[in-house]
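User: Quick one: structure for sequence A, then sequence B.

Assistant: Sequence A:
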Amino acid sequence: MESVIHLVDEDPGARDRLDRVLRRAYPPCRDYRDADDLLLRLVDDRPGCVLVALRTPGMAGLRTQQRLREAGSTLSVIFLGDSPRVSAAVGAMHAGAEDFLASPIDDDTLIETVQQAIARDRRRKVRQAARQALRERLARLTPRERETLEAVVSGLSNKGIAEALSISPKTVELHRAHMMHKMGAGSVAEVVKLYLLERPVGNRQRTD
């Protein structure tokens, strides 16, 4: 799938210069004056990244990352600073930036950083799609099939599930077969893997 680069900079000349550099490896960037303009016009769900120039006093552009996440975007954010000061980089990272490039920016470094950011976003979108597909499968389960799934994941045998749910082993087998089919799983190990993909991280037992 083709990627897209979103460039946020209030300076049209600076946007043009960056666009010319990035055209060596990518189609033309999509340009925006500020974060409001970006969020208003951001409808593209292709893998990509956002380049944000930090020019305004107080670095108001740092809020772009937070606003993107609030809007449900997975796009990687790269902040571009006019100053190489450590404080600027630290502020960007605290705001959620995945990279910070200070001027003057080497062309090859810019292209490589963008490539890495797009690759991260592509992986995030794959995981996001997998979780959405899993949520849709889980939604098709009946309440009893969901109970059977949770019992299977907890390690109970058919006999144990029957006792826990006060049903016959034969009924357990029926619910289990329906659950496996709806989940698209061919084995218990696959069911467990799928279930843990969707299960909230906070509910998992820590192993570290």
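Sequence B:
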Amino acid sequence: MARETIILTRQEVAQQVSLEDIIPAIENCLAQFEKGEDLLPPKCIVDLPGGVAACLTGYTKSTHMFSMKIGQERKGNVAQGLPTIFSTMNLYDPDTGELLLIVESVLATMYRTAAAAAVASKYLARQEATVLAVLGAGQLGRQCLRALSTVRPFKKIRLFDVRKSQAEQVAQELVSDVVVPIEVTNPEKACREADVICTATNSTDPIVKSEWVKVGTHLSCMGADLPNKIECEKELLPRCRLFADNVEHCLQRGETSQAVESGVLEENCYSGSLGQVILGQVVGRSTNDEITLFDGVGLGVQDTTVAKSIYDQATTKGLGLRVAFS
């Protein structure tokens, strides 16, 4: 008899799944991916009448699991009082084909993206970094703030969102999660005083100006995952040592894609991948004066890793609805 499938809602993930447990899992995933034993098919994007749909899949040898995630964005849903993004992720046993997990994956995706931002800051920020700036107070910005706070002992945290009330709400809600007071401010002040900047927006116009970024800063840029998205001024990028979760994917749809297309950057602009830095194959930060930038577009193997972590936690804690499909 096939194993039962665990079904988890977003509320169950938010209340019961540990983000801190996902961070080391993503760190290991990024490193193992560089060994060339995982499977990462191209991202499938479908333009539909009402919006866009995307499918990401991935197999990781370290988890020996396969996942498939389908997400759909409908900006017109706002007028109907509906979420603009719907997404679910399935986790499969690659040997038997059994469906082990179905999880609402908007929050799960935020967890894995935030975890990658935290891992990048762990390896690329200066050891004495004490001031964090997070630009974007939506679902992703909230999780990035939580995740980065676990890997660095920040003394000051500054938060910006174009909706000031949203930033103030997040700052208030995270009081119990983050021991450092969170100051809501404008993007210029947040960036100028920051040692680490994390961008977590859907912006199609730059929100970080080059003149705001001081030497020695690290940036984790997590919002640009399509060619039309950009969070940093093109002029900033040549000042940075650039690292990617996957160089090929980032050149196609990451933070550098527009700069490469316009000739501001060469195609060989990346120093390497974050996984290579973790493995010691590529030097990360080499001086305190360098500006480092991690470009994270998100990979299907990261989805597989976070799905496996959620599945393990659900199994251990008895979470979710169990369904026997066959």
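The chain has a mean pLDDT of 95. The chain is about 35% helix and 25% strand.

User: Thanks, that's what I needed.
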